[in-house]
Amino acid sequence: MPGQAQYFLIELDRALSVVRIRDHGTLEVLAELDGPTSRALLGDDKAVISADATAALTAAVYDKTRPVPMLEPAPGGLTSQVRKRQLARTEQRSGRKTRRKLWELPHKLHCPVIGTCLEADELRRIALKAGARPSGELTDYDVHVSFVAAADEKNSLSLATHKALDKKYASHVKRFSRARTDADLTAAWEDGLARGDVPGALWATLTHARCDDALKARTFEEIHMLSHQIGAGQRADLKRLTEAEQELRTLQHDFDAAQGRQRRQLEEREQRILELERELAETHRHRRELAARETQFVHDIAELRNSSTQQRVELLTTELLDRERRLAGLQQQSEAMEAALSSAEQELSDAQTENAELVADCSAMERFITRSLDICENCEGPEPGDNPDLGGRRILCVGGRNRLIEHYRELVTRCNGRFEHYDGGLEDNRQRLDALLSSADAVVCATDSVSHDAYYRLKRFCKRNETPHVFLRNSGISSFTRALYGMSSPD
């Protein structure tokens, strides 16, 4: 700027110097700063500073008995990073006794601290309490960036953020305060990282008085890599979730269709039962009428015999024989109807049993898929849930659809089991089935896709060796899941 000298901090011969550029463009060195003074004031940065700042720097250089002042940055000059480096050098010389504040942390740590330790909803609540009012609607990213920028200075928003973090992770801060040495603090951080208790451990470590530059760099690197690992895991979980949702929709469609068929069959069978019951009631009524008429005939015959009218007796006898034949026919018809009713009732019972199995299959699959979704939606890291635990047992699947084999294997693996497969005698030889049966802890057999020879050999082997086994009516994923739940039960 013409007519006004400009002051700079520049590096000359690997040392920082306070210089001035005169109006005619010449450079005047006002003072050279020694290593400790220059690092305390500016670190490795160079900046334009004001004339007042230059005077203070020069006085600090030549008056070693007076502490170096904290300089307010001129426009385009020293930033808060200068003050943070000055504070860091002071801590190294005197030894820090108190915890660090959020705005005292290096700027590059603000993003992982705020992003890891606070949710977007929490940030919005903190902003409201601090009196911050956005000019427009902000996305979660906008809120995050605003808090990261505010954390660089001590202000109402950074104060409120620091207070919220201390309150949320008070137990972690208290536990980490017991660390008296650098090794103790490092061990506490490693323990929190190993247990997945990352947010609280991160805040308690970085604000601890004994957290040095090496530990700060280590926590930054480990949080950075952890974010990549979590992102990769979430993508894999999203893929599995999409496949599971598609499978659930397919199962729901099949279940709805099966329920519709069962409902129609039940309605038809109930209608048939009602018709048979009406016919049976009509037959009983006829039998009662015939029995009453038979009684009357016997009475009439007795009267005729008493009157010695042989002709009347013969007529009544013929009529009685005819009615007895009719009664026998009605009795046969009644027995046939009772047999049909019994058969219909058995069909109804079988249908109800099949429907209950379908409901149990769907319920087991829904339980299994629901527990996987809860783990995928938390975003805090995977948790095991309460899927059936096979205890490392070897599960042999005999038969089953080829396109579902890998799904069977994944289910068994996720339930802490080992999976073996025999195709049901379609291509594999008999000796292989014997070997697989001998090494299996439990057997699941899909009877809709297995040969008769394999079925009876499997059944005899399991009965003789008391091997747990389950026969499935179909090869569906839901039936296989229900079988795994049964095998994992305590009894």
Description:
Helix content is 65%, strand content 9%. The chain has 491 residues and is an alpha/beta fold. It has 4 domains: 6-94, no CATH class; 102-211, no CATH class; 244-378, Helix Hairpins (Orthogonal Bundle), CATH 1.10.287; 394-488, Toll/interleukin-1 receptor homology (TIR) domain (Rossmann fold). It has a 4-stranded antiparallel β-sheet with strand order 3-2-1-4. Helix 13 links the parallel strand 5 and strand 6 (418-422). Helix 11 runs antiparallel to helix 12 (310-378).
Task: Round the mean pLDDT to the nearest integer and report it.
Answer: 76
Helix content: 55-70%
Query: What summary fits the major beta sheet?
Result: 4 strands, antiparallel
Number of beta strands: 8
Alpha carbon gap, first and last residue: 89 Å
- Predict the CATH topology of the largest domain: Helix Hairpins
Question: Runs with pLDDT <50, length 5+?
Answer: 1-5, 34-79, 373-385
CATH architecture of the largest domain: Orthogonal Bundle
Query: What is the H/E string?
Result: EEEHEHHHHHHHHHHHEHEHEHEH
Number of helices: 16
Please report which band the strand proportion falls in: under 5%, 5-15%, 15-25%, 25-35%, 35-45% or over 45%: 5-15%
Computed Rg: 44 Å
- Domains, number: 4
Q: Structural class per helix/strand content?
A: alpha/beta
Major sheet strand order = 3-2-1-4
CATH class call of the largest domain: Mainly Alpha
Please state the overall shape, judged from the principal axes of the Cα atoms: elongated
